[in-house]
Amino acid sequence: MEPDERTMARLKAGCICKGVKLIRLIEAVDNGAATVAEVQRVCGIGDGPCQGRRCGAKALELLPPHPEDEQDACRHGLG
Predict the structure, then answer these.
(1) Could you report the per-residue pLDDT of 27-36, keeping only the tens digit for each?
(2) How many CA atoms lie within 13 A of 28 on its CB side?
(3) Distance from C-alpha of 74 to C-alpha of 49, rounded to nearest angstrom
(4) What is the C-alpha separation between 59 and 40, in angstroms, rounded?
(5) Nearest residue to 19 via CA among 11, 31, 27
(6) pTM, 2 dp
(7) How far is it, in rounded angstroms, from Cα 25 to Cα 38?
């Protein structure tokens, strides 16, 4: 990720419902979160009014592609 992108991530929403910035999701992935559930647990997201539909999709985009994640996302309407 480019330095300017990290700066912008500090300003952008990662979870609108919980008021968590995108940079927190990025840092969770950088620190080893490997699934959407792990990102949600580390960042405290996914249980707001949208039940993770918006932030879950963002977390999935940040993770390296895994066939299991893509199948799970499709089952939950994220893919």
Answers:
(1) 999 999 999 9
(2) 27
(3) 20
(4) 8
(5) 11
(6) 0.78
(7) 10
